[in-house]
């Protein structure tokens, strides 16, 4: 019997009703960049737990990708959540952390009390010259941000920050760190989140400011940038760098006070995580499609065995389902709809899917999948994190169920 002709995996295309010429061009540009620029770097640096070089970040900035959602009047691309997630999926397909670094732009750290400063920072953000880190979580406050204990005490025109933060990705390389701190304790009858304020700690990239030290957290995956536990001991922040907007409990009313804008940000982050998870799972499917044709056992490619063919089919179907759902929810957000439950649902479904698919991909690779010689082990390690960051799967289930059922 003639040996079947090898067929390269075919990446998915945008389908109606989401396809436009602009989106198709953006997708192709990001896909080519991920394949030709990011993937070789990931193959080299990820096994070393290495950091993405600044030259890569600068190349992404030149594409305008740090300003996808920033209005054109500030130098951004003026596009929506859909395009932001579309590009991020393509980059994450090559290396998860490159899809994530885009979130450190997009106007992060620009909501200052001074309108003139805000406009200037938006322009810098759009150019990739204002890339930040977020320090929300603490050793005893993760999903429950209302439990934050880091303190901010007013001294004249400055605030003095003291406490410990954990899971601050890219903290050393960033231009600033957005720190959530407590300025006062809640009054009786107030939500536990009352008194929490975000502060902008401006710094030189590659350093920590006076009063702050950072310890690298040794992760099993999600390489490309370092993640830190930060100690703040008298870090001084000018009043002008106190940021607007409040952080609230996951179960807070999304229409109350400043929490509405924060809730929208959380929803965007969840859809963005879903798109990144789809990118990682896509990589696993595409690599498996090639491997099943390449690897031979019992005198034929293992892709000729029905059990393996059907496993690959199930993987591909799950990825396509999650991909279609994140695109739908991104569209809802771009239409101005809250889509809170939908954002939680797609984050839950896409990330859990990525874990299943990458786990199955390792199985299809057999012993070769359990080596660092193949990329599939990287996909598996990175996918596992997506069910945890930006709100664990358990938090997403809480959000969804709380919108469906009353609490006693």
From TrEMBL:
<dbReference type="InterPro" id="IPR006091">
    <property type="entry name" value="Acyl-CoA_Oxase/DH_mid-dom"/>
</dbReference>
<feature type="domain" description="Acyl-CoA dehydrogenase/oxidase N-terminal">
    <location>
        <begin position="21"/>
        <end position="126"/>
    </location>
</feature>
<dbReference type="InterPro" id="IPR009075">
    <property type="entry name" value="AcylCo_DH/oxidase_C"/>
</dbReference>
<dbReference type="Pfam" id="PF00441">
    <property type="entry name" value="Acyl-CoA_dh_1"/>
</dbReference>
<dbReference type="Pfam" id="PF02771">
    <property type="entry name" value="Acyl-CoA_dh_N"/>
</dbReference>
<feature type="domain" description="Acyl-CoA oxidase/dehydrogenase middle">
    <location>
        <begin position="134"/>
        <end position="235"/>
    </location>
</feature>
<dbReference type="Pfam" id="PF02770">
    <property type="entry name" value="Acyl-CoA_dh_M"/>
</dbReference>
<dbReference type="InterPro" id="IPR006089">
    <property type="entry name" value="Acyl-CoA_DH_CS"/>
</dbReference>
<dbReference type="GO" id="GO:0050660">
    <property type="term" value="F:flavin adenine dinucleotide binding"/>
</dbReference>
<dbReference type="InterPro" id="IPR046373">
    <property type="entry name" value="Acyl-CoA_Oxase/DH_mid-dom_sf"/>
</dbReference>
<dbReference type="GO" id="GO:0003995">
    <property type="term" value="F:acyl-CoA dehydrogenase activity"/>
</dbReference>
<keyword id="KW-0274">FAD</keyword>
<protein>
    <submittedName>
        <fullName>Acyl-CoA dehydrogenase</fullName>
        <ecNumber>1.3.99.-</ecNumber>
    </submittedName>
</protein>
<dbReference type="InterPro" id="IPR009100">
    <property type="entry name" value="AcylCoA_DH/oxidase_NM_dom_sf"/>
</dbReference>
<comment type="similarity">
    <text>Belongs to the acyl-CoA dehydrogenase family.</text>
</comment>
<dbReference type="InterPro" id="IPR013786">
    <property type="entry name" value="AcylCoA_DH/ox_N"/>
</dbReference>
<dbReference type="InterPro" id="IPR037069">
    <property type="entry name" value="AcylCoA_DH/ox_N_sf"/>
</dbReference>
<feature type="domain" description="Acyl-CoA dehydrogenase/oxidase C-terminal">
    <location>
        <begin position="257"/>
        <end position="405"/>
    </location>
</feature>
<keyword id="KW-0285">Flavoprotein</keyword>
<dbReference type="InterPro" id="IPR036250">
    <property type="entry name" value="AcylCo_DH-like_C"/>
</dbReference>
<keyword id="KW-0560">Oxidoreductase</keyword>
